[in-house]
Amino acid sequence: LIGAGVTLYESLTAADLLAKEGINACVIDPFTIKPLDVELIQRHAKRVGGRVVTVEDHYPAGGIGETVSAALAVEGGVKVHSLCVREVPRSGPPEVLVDLFGISARHIVNAVKNF
After folding, report:
1. Is the separation of the CB atoms in 54 and 11 below 8 Å?
2. H helices of 4-101, where?
3. Measured on CA atoms in the order 7, 4, 13, 2, is the torsion positive or negative?
4. Minimal CA–CA distance to 100: which of 109, 110, 90?
5. Mean per-residue pLDDT for 28-47?
6. Which residues lie below 8 Å from residue 68, measured CB to CB, with a gap of 6+?
7. Dist CA 111 CA 115 (whole Å)
């Protein structure tokens, strides 16, 4: 699981929920996407069987998912699933919005289970 800011928190919460079901997840906070720690992400992507879920609180273009996908494109057998905002954002309480846009811990857990 790769997230930053609010989505890092949601990723950590999802990892805790998954652990209760016997599913272990690695959580990475990339800190920056330029420069991206490509070696770290490649190493852990291989370690977890080549399945990476990125989570971001904005549109997909130019974000974590796109950057991680590009960094892992040279790695055979690695797949990236990106959770991000795919509709026009609106105002509201943060906990409602992250769930509305499909980037809450609940959605992350579902993405991992359905990967």
Report:
1. no
2. 6-19, 38-47, 64-72, 94-100
3. positive
4. 90
5. 93
6. 2, 30, 36, 41, 52, 54, 80
7. 6
Distance CA 51, CA 53 (A): 7
pTM, two decimals, is: 0.93
* Residue 115 to residue 110: CA distance in whole angstroms: 8
* pLDDT tens digits for range 69-100: 999 998 788 999 999 999 998 899 999 999 99
3-state SS, residue 12: helix
Residue 58: both structure tokens together: 């904005």
Question: Is residue 75 within 8 Å of residue 42, measured between CB atoms?
Answer: yes
